Amino acid sequence: MKNIQAQAKLLMEFLPYIRKFKGETIVIKYGGHAMTNEALQKAFALNIALLQYVGINVVVVHGGGPQIGKMLEQLNINSTFRQGLRVTDDATMNVVEMVLVGRVNKEIVNALNQSGVKAVGLSGKDGQMIKARKMEMVIHNPAHQAPEIIDLGKVGEVMFIDTKLIHALLRDSYVPVIAPVGGDEEGETYNINADAVAGAVAGALKAKRLLLLTDVAGIMDKDKKLLNSLDISSVLSLFEDGTLQGGMIPKVKCALEALQDGVEKVIITDGRVENGILLELFTDHGVGTELVRKKA
Ligand SMILES: Nc1ncnc2c1ncn2[C@@H]1O[C@H](COP(=O)(O)OP(=O)(O)OP(=O)(O)O)[C@@H](O)[C@H]1O
Ligand SMILES: [Mg+2]
């Protein structure tokens, strides 16, 4: 009896959180690095099921860097990265689309379906959901006078998110699972960083939370110590002093944009921690890094 009472008490502790998030939208970016373990993928799917059962609208955006890398290696296609983004020629773009839309997306949809929710896999081309354009990257290197223009090939950036299809799916209790591939007016296909898509989707939906699941505990400072909570001004200095490198650069950029678009809080956390999503949403102290517009 004592045991059951303790269990009931524990369940009641979740009531304030369920109340806070019921009817709200949460966008979860599932990083390619965080989804390589099957047991973790199952736990991820069950966490999403729980969120849906308590009335939260969940949208998943996924990456797939390691999976793309593996396939490119098998096909002997070399890749280089600039500022955390993969330089994407036409042959690479074909592989990116095949792996992301054809395989990774369907694997996540399948895992979610198995956990009891109905998931629908989409690429940004479906319903013209993601309007993209070629990314123009300009780097200002103090060592050179002229800015350096980098051609990233078929790397795109989000121009606009049409949320109609997402809303239609959420209304009928489907979990949209979005692969970060988009098209432009001319029918070109672009490889878009998944964090950028997640940030833009969260902003367009005015999501309550954007959760970025990755393969590190969160944002680390120069001494590799986890930073628990940051606001926009403190994040900007991390860019300037070079604390943020590689894949963390587009991640934090998109987080800032999402906050500016009205997302209340962005959380960067370790996708390798079992039940990490629940820890971040249903407890007061998450385990990763939270980003807010301005600290209270
Ligand atoms: N200051 C920092 N704090 C934490 N991680 C950092 C920092 N600077 C750079 N990183 C790197 O950023 C990486 C996370 O970005 P990465 O793009 O590799 O993964 P992802 O976005 O989760 O997956 P995917 O790109 O496949 O969707 C970390 O593994 C870490 O090596
Ligand atoms: Mg990344």
Automatic annotation (TrEMBL):
<keyword id="KW-0055">Arginine biosynthesis</keyword>
<comment type="pathway">
    <text>Amino-acid biosynthesis; L-arginine biosynthesis; N(2)-acetyl-L-ornithine from L-glutamate: step 2/4.</text>
</comment>
<dbReference type="Pfam" id="PF00696">
    <property type="entry name" value="AA_kinase"/>
</dbReference>
<keyword id="KW-0028">Amino-acid biosynthesis</keyword>
<feature type="binding site">
    <location>
        <position position="191"/>
    </location>
    <ligand>
        <name>substrate</name>
    </ligand>
</feature>
<protein>
    <recommendedName>
        <fullName>Acetylglutamate kinase</fullName>
        <ecNumber>2.7.2.8</ecNumber>
    </recommendedName>
</protein>
<feature type="binding site">
    <location>
        <begin position="64"/>
        <end position="65"/>
    </location>
    <ligand>
        <name>substrate</name>
    </ligand>
</feature>
<dbReference type="InterPro" id="IPR036393">
    <property type="entry name" value="AceGlu_kinase-like_sf"/>
</dbReference>
<dbReference type="GO" id="GO:0005524">
    <property type="term" value="F:ATP binding"/>
</dbReference>
<dbReference type="InterPro" id="IPR001048">
    <property type="entry name" value="Asp/Glu/Uridylate_kinase"/>
</dbReference>
<dbReference type="InterPro" id="IPR037528">
    <property type="entry name" value="ArgB"/>
</dbReference>
<dbReference type="GO" id="GO:0003991">
    <property type="term" value="F:acetylglutamate kinase activity"/>
</dbReference>
<dbReference type="InterPro" id="IPR001057">
    <property type="entry name" value="Glu/AcGlu_kinase"/>
</dbReference>
<feature type="binding site">
    <location>
        <position position="86"/>
    </location>
    <ligand>
        <name>substrate</name>
    </ligand>
</feature>
<keyword id="KW-0067">ATP-binding</keyword>
<feature type="domain" description="Aspartate/glutamate/uridylate kinase">
    <location>
        <begin position="25"/>
        <end position="270"/>
    </location>
</feature>
<keyword id="KW-0547">Nucleotide-binding</keyword>
<keyword id="KW-0808">Transferase</keyword>
<comment type="similarity">
    <text>Belongs to the acetylglutamate kinase family. ArgB subfamily.</text>
</comment>
<keyword id="KW-0963">Cytoplasm</keyword>
<feature type="site" description="Transition state stabilizer">
    <location>
        <position position="251"/>
    </location>
</feature>
<dbReference type="GO" id="GO:0005737">
    <property type="term" value="C:cytoplasm"/>
</dbReference>
<comment type="function">
    <text>Catalyzes the ATP-dependent phosphorylation of N-acetyl-L-glutamate.</text>
</comment>
<dbReference type="InterPro" id="IPR004662">
    <property type="entry name" value="AcgluKinase_fam"/>
</dbReference>
<dbReference type="InterPro" id="IPR041727">
    <property type="entry name" value="NAGK-C"/>
</dbReference>
<feature type="site" description="Transition state stabilizer">
    <location>
        <position position="29"/>
    </location>
</feature>
<dbReference type="GO" id="GO:0042450">
    <property type="term" value="P:L-arginine biosynthetic process via ornithine"/>
</dbReference>
<keyword id="KW-0418">Kinase</keyword>
